[in-house]
Amino acid sequence: MTEPELAAVVKASLFSVAPDLEGEAIQPEVPFRDQFEIDSMDFLNFIIDLHNRTGVEISEPDYAELSSLAGAVRYLKSRLSPPVAT
Amino acid sequence: MIEFRMPSLGADMDAGTLLEWLKKPGDVIKRGDVIAVVETQKAAMELEVFTDGVIDRLLVKPGARIPVGDVMATIRSADEASGPGLEKPELHSAPQALDATPTAVDTPLVASAPAAQKPQARVTPAARRRAEELAVDLLMLSPGPGGVVGIEDVERAAQGAKAPRPGSIALDEMRKAIAAAMARSHREIPHYYVSSTIDVSRMMDWLQAENSKRSVPARLLYAAPLIRAISLALSKVPDLNGRFINGHFEPSTAVNLGVAIAMRGGGLIAPAIIGVEALGSDEIMQRLRDLVTRVRGGRLRSSEMTEGTITLSNLGEDTADSVLPLIYPPQTAIIGCGRIAERPWISAGRIVAAKTMTVSVAGDHRVSDGRRAALFLNRLDAILQNPDSL
Questions:
Q1: pLDDT at position A86, please?
Q2: Would you say residue B304 has pLDDT above 60?
Q3: Closest approach of chain A CAs to the CA of B367, in angstroms?
Q4: Which pLDDT belongs to residue A82?
Q5: Does B289 sit within 8 Å of A45, measured CB to CB?
Q6: Which residues, 6 or more positions from B67, have their beta carbon under 8 angstroms from its beta carbon?
Q7: CB distance B296–A22 less than 8 Å?
Q8: Residue B107 pLDDT
Q9: Do B41 and B12 contact (CB within 8 A), yes or no?
Q10: Cβ-count burial of B1 within 10 angstroms (0-12 exposed, 13-18 middle, 19+ buried)?
Q11: Given an 8 Å threshold on Cβ–Cβ distance, is A58 in contact with B216?
């Protein structure tokens, strides 16, 4: 998936767990928690939805990397890109 | 004939706006059925009936603002004749109906401007709710880039319109409701407070090990085992769990734990998990997720707002060390949990780093005293040292 496609997936996940935010502009580098008062339950639901959409198994220690739009895109990209042949 | 009245869905509610009837005259209803949906200052709520019978008459129309305690409908028993006379009573076409504001329930993402005047702008539901709170006319707003009106657009418009005095903030409806309820709590309930700092390292280690074994959708938040431990500890201290009604304390065998949930845009709501004492951590997690989801974008049930017997205010991550909350009348206790952080702790004569949490209990002196709440805290501490039992 390209970065814009991944960004669309991340936004879709965020809006599915916070339907009242649908359509809100998202600042890519600012944590969701700071922009939208996302609490720990919202955030876990967001991780679950991302997992369901992408199949990526996101471990708990990695959660912090997914706290913003840009961070989540970077994380998914690194986990989804095909392994480099050596 | 039984009169169905607008219930008080929390100490801070004085009225609700009827959104729709889900039953009509002649419909057979059973205890627990949802018969109507009302919008309150905080959320859309499903009203349940507490009797079996047949809907006789509906006395208010959708859009009407109905004070708490006013009759909304009459219900007859299955073998009772229809209401007095055969005349069709006129529904109140309440004058307040004009005040009814559009809600997310019936108008998700609707066009906000008359088509003739300007291009139609979409308004996000969060922005719509914020506009209601701040009394901002959505017609007067220009959408941001992308043609969507968001929370920031509404807040900018509210600042421009009201031009509050420097240093003052506008009291929105939610804030007024919370202020009314908490003023009542402060006035009527002689509070006492006790608190303890508890080592929760074992619970957090257990949780981390448990979550590392689970796939993403099955993972737990620490709130789940914490709530489980609270319900177990409460079972031994019944004078904290119940309601104070008409000058008497009514202890409850069931623990209906209200959970304070912060709402985006400000304010709190505390719907209850009914019968939490019978649930394990996984079920508690499901119920908690369901509650938060419905607070964000759905409907709460009236029983969740009226049958709470005690409340938990769990501050969570990135917040503050402790909280001393006020009791929600008619309940007689509230538990406040500060954030969990690593702090210096003395264990077996040595200073170690431990994950600790400060738990406070506010109790009602008409019913109990600090000694009982301290007993609860000691039991909670003991249970949390043995997380395998959660």
A1: 55
A2: yes
A3: 34
A4: 66
A5: yes
A6: B6, B14, B15
A7: no
A8: 35
A9: yes
A10: middle
A11: yes
Nearest to A23 among B148, B152, B212 (CB): B148
More confident residue, B331 or B158: B331
CB pair distance less than 8 Å for A37 and B264: yes
Q: What tokens does A48 get?
A: 């679950």
Average pLDDT value for residue range B272-286? 96
Task: Give A3-80's CATH code, choosing from 1.10.1200.10, 3.40.50.2300, 1.25.40.10, 3.30.460.10.
Answer: 1.10.1200.10
Q: Would you state the structure tokens that stand for residue A33, as one six-digit string?
A: 């928690």
If you count residue pairs, one on A and one on B, with CB atoms under 8 Å apart, how many are there? 82
B226 neighbors B204 (Cβ within 8 angstroms): no
Q: Give the pair of three-digit tokens for residue B263.
A: 């709402």
Q: Hey, where are the domains in chain A?
A: 3-80
For the whole model, what pTM was predicted? Answer: 0.77
Number of H helices, E strands in chain B: 8, 22
| Residue whose tokens read 């008359």 | B114
* B150 contacts A52? CB cut-off 8 A: no
Using one digit for the tens of pLDDT, what is the confidence trace for B63-108? 888 999 999 999 998 887 765 544 444 454 444 433 344 333 333 3
